[in-house]
């Protein structure tokens, strides 16, 4: 089992790659905060896009979803790579609630997500 929750690093000064590492669990608010705080350290003013990679078969508790939704609203663009239909459904609901459908998109593969981020920066 991975004890580290998330990693974040800057890719070619173009976007932050934020990866949640834990799989097949439900993350709570504190766990998602740890990941997003890593992204904040790379861009304190949140002026860079984010490639968000979810953990395989991982979902979010309600408070964690609310926190993620507030984060998604504050970054220029976020490409979210989902692993399964449950994540896709939850992600689409969160995106719809943010009101920022043109700035936040779901992808089933990382390559397409990166292309979208790089073509829209």
Question: What's the helical proportion of residues?
Answer: 40-55%
Specify the structural class: alpha/beta
Pick out the low-confidence regions.
Answer: none
Question: Going across the major beta sheet, what is the strand order?
Answer: 1-2-4-6-7
CATH architecture verdict: 2-Layer Sandwich
Element-level helix/strand string:
EEEHEEHEHEH
The dominant shape is globular
> How many individual domains?
1
Number of strands: 7
Q: So how many helices?
A: 4
Roughly what fraction of the amino acids lie in strands? Answer: 15-25%
What gap, in angstroms, lies between the N and C termini?
36 Å
Can you give the mean pLDDT? 93
Largest sheet data? 5 strands, mixed
CATH class: Alpha Beta
Describe the structure in your own words.
- This protein has 121 residues and is α/β, with parallel strands linked by helices.
- It has one domain (6-120): Transcription Regulator spoIIAA (2-Layer Sandwich).
- The protein has 4 helices and 7 strands.
- The chain has helices spanning 29-42, 62-72, 85-98, 110-120; strands at residues 6-11, 15-20, 26-27, 49-53, 59-60, 78-81, 104-107.
- A 5-stranded mixed beta sheet has the order 1-2-4-6-7, with helices on both faces.
- Helix 1 packs parallel to helix 2 (62-72) and helix 2 crosses helix 3 (85-98).
- The longest helix has 14 residues, at 29-42.
């Amino acid at each position: 089992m991975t004890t580290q929750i998330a990693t974040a690093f800057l890719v070619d000064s173009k976007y932050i790659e934020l990866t949640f590492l834990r799989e097949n669990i439900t993350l709570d608010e504190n766990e998602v905060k740890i990941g997003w705080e890593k992204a904040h350290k790379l861009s304190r003013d949140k002026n860079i896009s984010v490639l968000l990679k979810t953990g395989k078969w991982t979902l979010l508790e309600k408070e964690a979803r609310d926190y993620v939704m507030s984060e998604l609203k504050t970054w220029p663009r976020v490409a979210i790579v989902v692993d399964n239909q449950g994540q896709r459904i939850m992600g689409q609901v969160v995106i719809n609630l943010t009101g920022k459908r043109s700035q936040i998109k779901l992808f089933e593969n990382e390559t397409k997500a990166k292309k979208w981020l790089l073509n829209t920066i």
